[in-house]
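Quick illustration, no need to memorize.
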Amino acid sequence: MSAPLSRRPLVFAILATLAVAPFTAQADDPVAAMPEGIDFYGKVNISFQIDEDYDAHDAPRENEWDTNQAWHSNSSRVGAKGKYTLNDDWALVYKAEYELAGNGGYGSQKDFLVAREIYAGVSSKTFGTLEGGKIDTPLRMLQGKVDLFSDLTAADLKNVMVGKNRDSHTYLYRTPSFYGVSAAFATVNFREVDNSSKFYDRSGNSMSVTYESKGLLTDSDALYFAVAHDEGIRDHDIERVALQYKFGKVEEAGIFTVGLMGQNARKMNPEKTFPTKQKREDGYMVNAAWQFTDKDTIKLQYAKSEEVEYDGQLSAIGYDHKLNKDLKLYAYHGQVMGDESKSSSDRTLKSTGIGVEYSF
């Protein structure tokens, strides 16, 4: 088998082309550079939950549940993004987004702000967009499109599936959309040494192709279909496919949305395996949402994979009520189950909560 080809020379070639194009294009009829307003935005997602954590070996008392009542900040965030127009086609773009650790912070220093996506780049309506910084991988972006319970404690797909990656030193190129089809290519060049002088290499490549369409079969339906591949990122090779179809409004029954995602993952580090002691595992997710009024939605989701837990299964049910376009109340129950007889993966987690989400 031939060795995988490196895509970094291609990325750097694109970078060089995009860097000089704004100054060479339309030289006879330049458009004055125009500063544009900074878009400050954010999301506050707070829930009160009853969490039940069962670990057959590591609970406070062996073979017992550890029940906790707490407020959770579910990836609440604040950020700024914008662009600086260079001419009719080209613009500089930027984004700086931080998570608000509203329930105490992270790590030994209890940091209140934790970096999410931070990047700068150049964008063209004709040639696409190139960004550099700390960015979600194209494969991760697929999950954000179809995961109905992202960021919630015992319902997020990261509890059973690998691939939710965001790393520094990432270069991402996205093509323009052509009849609903677009592609994204990313290369990650991230190596670090921790306090114990242990070396980590998270370098790799990620890519995706997506198709989005509205009014495909009816005047009000919508389709999202995507495939993605990670090569070596965080020691994994992953193939992922995602599909979501939003049915048009059916008489008085409301709007139905169904989604699915499947993937195959392989460990690239020869010294590491999945909880099953295997080098290769796969998984899938199915979900559905029923918006039975303009303000009310019921959601269901199920996922199964042995990439994180031995015999890992995730199930979640939720209810959303919109007060307006920016504010909603919700309730949910999520559960992550593993095989309790396996010492390598023996965790069970349940969460039941009510919350509020406000976007601005």
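The longest strand covers residues 39-55.
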